[in-house]
Amino acid sequence: MKMAVLLSGSGRTLDNFHERIAAGAMQGAIEVVISNVREALGLKKARDYGYPAFHAADNAEINGIITGHGVELVLLAGFLKLYEPPAQLRKNVLNIHPSLIPSFCGPGYYGMKVHRAVQARGVKVSGCTVHFANEVYDEGPIVVQKCVPLDENDTPDDIAARVFAAECEAYPEAINLVHDRGIDAFWR
């Protein structure tokens, strides 16, 4: 599958994808990387890896770039805006969320905000969820979830590190499942 990666920050998830593809552990090919943040470190990393990399301010710009690269699957990798794909890719957008949906998700729940809420609530298990994105935050079909045990002394930073390690396994696993089973298999 031809894939686009949308990011807003440092590109840690892009690093993971690049390493896994190079090792033969993740299927698909990254055709383009796009950020809504002009100076995002992830764009520099993408260029260093040899991927076409662009800044795009809005969905129309993003979709123009994606269409021009023949993308079949859009991967949200720390993309901090609500993305609206073109009609032909409406079901073809994967996202990773740093909690076990349906907990700690929806508008306003992203990044460290999730981990602070998890720690404040005192939950014993957190994790991550890879799901297809739709027009409502964190409500599309779930592809993969990974759990991580928590300790009562964990800080939000501890939780974030543990969850990110799980994300590095879950997202490539989900991409491989989508590649093998097809997108429509998850939209029943």
Description:
The chain has 188 residues and is of the alpha/beta class. The chain folds into two domains: 1-90, 3-Layer(aba) Sandwich (Rossmann fold); 96-188, Rossmann fold. The chain contains five helices and seven strands, in the order E-H-E-H-E-H-E-E-H-E-E-H. The chain has helices at 12-22, 41-49, 59-68, 111-121, 156-181, and strands at residues 2-7, 29-35, 53-55, 73-76, 93-97, 125-132, 142-149. It has a seven-stranded mixed β-sheet with strand order 3-2-1-4-5-6-7, with helices on both faces. Helix 1 links the parallel strand 1 and strand 2. Helix 1 runs parallel beside helix 2 (41-49) and helix 4 crosses helix 5. The longest helix is centred in the C-terminal third of the chain and has 26 residues, at 156-181. The two termini are 21 Å apart. The mean pLDDT is 96.
